[in-house]
Design goal:
single chain, 201 residues, 39% helix
């Protein structure tokens, strides 16, 4: 069985619902938004397709500026009411780009991220979860959500690891754009890489 890997020619970035009125309720929200923004900037520098979903913009507002300001011009945003981000526009985007792997970040871990991840896996995509760029409003919901996604076949990574794995080689000219991003990754304050030190016990 092939080992899942992040490669620039095989990966898209999906940023889920990091919106103005939702973010203040999110555990470690500022760090999560910051790291999502770093992933967006890294994906742009490396030429990855990027898609942003937004849940009920009238009620929750647009994507926050730490992410929006780093998106390439013309980055598509898909507004939805369905909790899963795998709506027809998302599926069409991913299939058109023919990338078998999706790197996922955003909120909330136990709702939209979970349902999106399960739908992506069910449709045949390989999913990587940037665990330090995913959170929930209820901290106790984060670890169970990660446990379920991991059991379903998703692979854990982090913002720093994803950036380095995608660029792959310090001699790559694009590494000069990635290094400042890598140096500014923030660690969420919650315990452990996935919301609890006892996750793997």
């Amino acid at each position: 069985m092939p080992i899942p890997r992040l490669r620039t020619d095989a990966c898209s970035l999906l940023v889920i619902d990091v919106q103005e009125r939702l973010l203040p309720t999110i555990t470690d929200g500022e760090a999560i938004a910051h790291n999502c923004g770093l992933l967006a900037a890294g994906a742009a520098a490396l030429g990855l397709p990027i898609l942003v979903t937004e849940q009920y913009v009238k009620g929750l507002g647009p994507t926050v500026s730490p992410i929006a300001d780093r998106l390439p011009s013309g980055t598509p945003r898909v507004e939805k009411t369905r909790f899963s981000g795998v709506v027809p526009e998302t599926e069409r985007f991913l299939r058109e780009h023919r990338r078998p792997t999706v790197l996922v970040c955003g909120v909330e871990a136990h709702v939209c991220v979970l349902q999106t991840t399960l739908d992506l896996l069910a449709r045949g995509w390989s999913v990587f979860l940037a665990t330090d760029a995913i959170s929930s409003g209820q901290a106790d919901q984060i670890s169970p959500a990660f446990a379920r996604m991991h059991a379903a076949g998703a692979t854990f990574t982090g913002t720093l690891g994803a950036l380095y794995e995608l660029v792959g080689d310090a001699s790559d000219p694009r590494f000069k754009s990635i290094l400042p991003l890598a140096k500014s990754v923030r660690s969420p304050g919650r315990l452990g890489p996935v919301g609890g030190r006892d996750f793997f016990r």
